[in-house]
């Protein structure tokens, strides 16, 4: 196989280019706007366009559809009555490699969020430049400009045809009633294009009149309309033809329709025939195509007038570039490695992309029907808190209405605030980690903002698809802190036989879904432990700030706050289960609606007792040593109650997840962390896949633990380098002061992704690296949030602490540029902070501390907390200008 050159950054806003990009098959790129127009586009312009599960303008694609032309945007040229050439590379001749790599070359240039392919054919003296993007307004349209240049001296006679097959229906009909749904199509031709509006939205549970229309519109550079259309797919390809060799183009058919035609009941083709031209040597012609899905009544003539000219295209493209540049300008990394800084631009875009696409609408993410899962929702908010803190408060508040009073939650989140659906495909499942994420995000929010009042805001609970009612029939509301307590206290008591939280239908690892009865997640027990301690800290801060001694909580919670009045025995599994069953039976018949006052001191002591008991238990019972003398934590028990990790006849078993949370939680001491790092280096590190694998090879189909053991080893949740967990590992290491070890984890991923010939992934962090080293499931991964969070709040150490600004850098020597400076831009206290660290003496991370902090040139007082600076929020918020410069001298 030909070795591929790596991508190269070409600008300051993430712009990059890839030469010979068509030599790689599974690449795709997102084009979207916040009105939820969602496209995917490949180097050959394959990929689909949609606004949701039921509204695909182009045929839905999964990974393996990316190399067929059924979902390809095409633009044909018939040249000098002889050669048929696709400006997007989609002719049978091009697939058959009629033109060698020497005569036809392809280059990608892309940026935030636009995609340009340049295809040069020396033999034909033709060059095409095809640019696609989605304008950043409320229109649901993708625009494409095709520029054709005659690169030779001779005149060329050109017959141009734009060709985009319009699928125009729900993804569900890809196979289910594919033909029958074409009978619903009502297609017409208008002045500048082809429009189809199906009569019904097909659903055998109850068909509904359809309101959605789809269109392919186009014009020449000056806005001149096409001369005619081939709106029916079978007429366009002709008998015996196909989309790669369509008769209409190949035979220069005159059998096209003019505007005003109506055709019912066939697959629609957005084929637009333009006037034949003579392209002089060196001359250029341009065509603008718009592909739209309109959920409401839209005047497509007007839409074409708005977009289908070169002037309009260039104007909207410039606006698009500016929009995304400004949107991402709120966080900027300026370390010595310029490429890393640019790579991070794409990483910061990813959480926004996941908000738009959910986990369902890019080619690798071909599962679900839209929306996001609970844990993804909360984790994406981590990055959004650093980028768009303003709307996140409401988002967090609304999300809490998805919590159930039994500590579980709605699992699928719709696109509207507070819109929840109980379960995907109506399969009721409970993931035991779900209760832990909201606190992490809420704590970050409170630390960044100082908004402790948030904890006292009242919110409803979720029950049977709506709001929980108390016994008197009224909607019951409790404070946010009550929601958090419910989530943590219920999990604390919900233990398996080894006194760890039950695994149920899985934890963070969706693939651990076959140990519902006896499985336990030690990993997440650790996280619940530290969360309980964090909750206690938040309550103390609340008590101090508000000078309060009590808070009101649901009366039923007194059962779970058992240290307050009763004798308790947290070593006893039976005791814990009894308490939980008592609470559940009290809630089963509806909760009383009564609230009682809880003494804050007693409450915090209760949470601390619980959190500490977990840590004690972990270190006594789950810290293991192999025969070879390696030490690390056991992370799980399977459905037969067997410990998962450690020595095994088929080889030592270890998971990364099992290590990450005890470290992050602070349950492991420094010595233990060192030993975990050594063990992870020995058993999990593999640079051929970008660093630390998720687990060792168990060489067994463990049907008593989960589906992931059915995946081939080294893929996805079975032992791939799974970015999300690896980045959390790095975060945990940084948090506990292991900067070098933490840096390595991220560096391995980054270096691997940069090696494009192996990783075959555009800039940004993919969900995982597979056994062949390929970056898989790009863009829509929670690891991006965690990476941004880790870089800003750990490596650069810029974070909030109950509203004050902490500057606690863990930058290594390599991060500082030749002027001994490393800088980061981020939002804090509603200001855009430009923070520059100076390490003039080139000290190592363990040898420097913050010596001086200057805000807009003025030295300010700060509290020195173990070498870090804590700067009062008011010193920042009182600054007049929106942008604030902070210089930090390290010594
Ligand atoms: C994906 C899911 C996430 C899950 C993880 C492991 O990770 O989105 O909810 O925890 O797989 O099963 P992501 O794509 O966010 O990296």
TrEMBL record:
Q: Where along the sequence do coiled-coil regions lie?
A: none
Xref: Gene3D superfamilies: 1.50.10.10, Glycoside hydrolase, family 65, N-terminal domain (2.70.98.40)
Keyword annotations? Glycosyltransferase, Transferase
The UniProt entry, under InterPro entries, shows: 6-hairpin_glycosidase_sf, 6hp_glycosidase-like_sf, GH65_N, GH94_catalytic, GH94_Enzymes, Glyco_hydrolase_94_b-supersand
Q: Where is the Glycosyl hydrolase 94 supersandwich domain?
A: 70-309
The Gene Ontology terms for molecular function here are: glycosyltransferase activity
Biological-process GO terms, alphabetical: carbohydrate metabolic process
Question: Origin, by domain of life?
Answer: Bacteria
Domain (Glycosyl hydrolase 94 catalytic) ranges? 323-555, 602-797
User: Can you say what this protein is called?
Assistant: Glycosyl transferase family 36
Q: Which organism encodes this protein?
A: Halanaerobium saccharolyticum
């Amino acid at each position: 196989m030909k070795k591929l050159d790596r991508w190269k950054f070409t600008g300051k806003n993430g712009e990059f280019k890839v030469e010979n990009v068509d030599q790689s098959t599974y690449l795709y790129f997102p084009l979207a706007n916040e009105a939820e127009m969602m496209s995917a586009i490949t180097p050959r312009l394959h990929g689909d366009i949609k606004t949701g599960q039921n509204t695909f303008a182009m045929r839905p694609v999964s990974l393996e559809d990316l190399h067929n032309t059924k979902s390809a945007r095409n633009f044909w040229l018939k040249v000098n009555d002889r050669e048929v050439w696709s400006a997007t590379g989609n002719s049978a001749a091009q697939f058959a490699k009629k033109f060698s790599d020497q005569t036809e070359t392809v280059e990608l240039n892309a940026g935030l969020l636009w995609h340009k392919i340049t295809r040069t054919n020396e033999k034909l003296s033709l060059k095409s430049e095809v640019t696609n993007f989605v304008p950043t307004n409320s229109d649901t349209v993708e625009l494409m400009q095709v520029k054709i240049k005659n690169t030779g001296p001779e005149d060329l006679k050109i017959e141009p045809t734009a060709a985009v097959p319009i699928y125009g229906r729900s993804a569900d009909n890809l196979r289910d009633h594919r033909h029958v749904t074409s009978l619903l199509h009502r297609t017409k031709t208008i002045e500048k294009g082809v429009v189809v509006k199906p009569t019904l939205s097909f659903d055998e549970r109850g068909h509904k009149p359809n309101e959605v229309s789809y269109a392919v519109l186009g014009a020449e550079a000056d806005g001149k309309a096409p001369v005619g259309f081939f709106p029916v797919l079978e007429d366009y390809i002709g008998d015996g033809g196909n989309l790669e060799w369509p008769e209409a183009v190949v035979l220069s058919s005159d059998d096209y329709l003019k505007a005003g035609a109506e055709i019912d009941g066939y697959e629609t083709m957005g084929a637009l025939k333009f006037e034949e031209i003579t392209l002089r040597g060196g001359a250029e012609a341009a065509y603008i195509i718009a592909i739209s899905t309109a959920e409401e009544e839209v005047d497509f003539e007007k839409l074409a007038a708005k977009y289908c000219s070169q002037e309009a295209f260039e104007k909207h493209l410039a606006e698009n570039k500016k929009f995304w540049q400004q949107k991402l300008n709120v966080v900027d990394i300026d370390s010595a490695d310029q490429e890393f800084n640019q790579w991070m631009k794409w990483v910061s875009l990813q959480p926004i992309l996941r908000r738009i696409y959910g986990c369902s609408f890019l080619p690798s993410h071909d599962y679900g029907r839209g929306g996001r899962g609970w844990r993804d929702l909360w984790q994406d908010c981590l990055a959004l808190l650093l980028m768009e803190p303003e709307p996140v408060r409401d988002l967090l508040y609304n999300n809490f209405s998805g919590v159930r009073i039994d500590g579980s939650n709605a699992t699928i989140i719709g696109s509207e605030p507070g819109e929840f659906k109980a379960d995907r495909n109506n399969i009721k499942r409970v993931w035991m980690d779900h209760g832990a994420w909201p606190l992490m995000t809420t704590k970050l929010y409170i630390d960044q903002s100082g908004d402790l009042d948030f904890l006292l805001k009242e919110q409803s609970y979720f029950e049977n698809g709506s709001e929980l009612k108390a016994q008197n029939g009224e909607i019951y509301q409790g404070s946010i802190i009550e929601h958090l307590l419910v989530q943590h206290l219920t999990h604390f008591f919900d233990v398996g036989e080894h006194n760890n939280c039950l695994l149920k239908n899985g934890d963070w690892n969706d693939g651990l879904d076959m140990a519902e009865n006896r499985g336990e997640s030690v990993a997440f027990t650790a996280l619940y432990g530290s969360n309980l301690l964090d909750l206690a800290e938040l309550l103390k801060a609340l008590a101090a700030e508000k000078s309060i001694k009590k808070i009101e909580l649901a009366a039923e919670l007194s059962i779970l706050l058992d240290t307050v009045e009763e004798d308790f025995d947290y070593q006893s599994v039976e005791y814990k289960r009894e308490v939980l069953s008592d609470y559940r039976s009290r809630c089963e018949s509806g909760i009383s609606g009564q609230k009682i006052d809880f003494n804050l001191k007693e409450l915090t002591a209760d949470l601390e007792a619980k959190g500490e008991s977990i840590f004690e238990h972990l270190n006594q019972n789950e810290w293991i040593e192999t025969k070879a003398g390696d030490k690390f934590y056991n992370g799980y028990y399977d459905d037969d109650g067997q410990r998962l990790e450690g020595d095994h006849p088929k080889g030592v078993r270890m998971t990364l997840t099992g290590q990450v949370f005890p470290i992050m939680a602070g349950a492991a001491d420094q010595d233990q962390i060192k030993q975990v790092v050594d063990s992870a280096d020995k058993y999990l590190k593999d640079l051929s896949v970008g660093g630390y694998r998720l687990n060792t090879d168990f060489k067994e189909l463990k049907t008593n633990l989960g589906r992931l053991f059915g995946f081939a080893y080294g893929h996805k949740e079975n032992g791939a380098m799974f970015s999300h967990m690896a980045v959390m590992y790095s975060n945990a290491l940084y948090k506990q002061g292991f900067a070098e070890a933490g840096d390595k984890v991220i560096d391995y991923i980054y270096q691997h992704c940069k090696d494009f010939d192996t990783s075959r992934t555009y800039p940004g962090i993919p969900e995982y690296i597979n056994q062949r080293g390929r970056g898989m499931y790009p863009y829509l991964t929670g690891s991006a949030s965690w990476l941004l969070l880790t870089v800003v709040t750990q490596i650069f150490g810029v974070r909030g602490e109950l509203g004050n600004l902490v500057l606690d850098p863990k930058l290594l020597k390599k991060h500082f540029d030749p002027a001994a400076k490393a800088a980061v831009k981020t939002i804090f206290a509603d200001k855009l902070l430009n923070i520059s660290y100076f390490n003039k003496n080139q000290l190592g991370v363990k040898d420097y501390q913050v010596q001086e902090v200057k805000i807009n040139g003025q030295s300010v007082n700060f509290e020195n907390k173990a070498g870090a600076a804590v700067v009062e929020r008011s010193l920042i918020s009182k600054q007049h200008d929106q942008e604030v410069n902070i210089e930090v001298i390290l010594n």
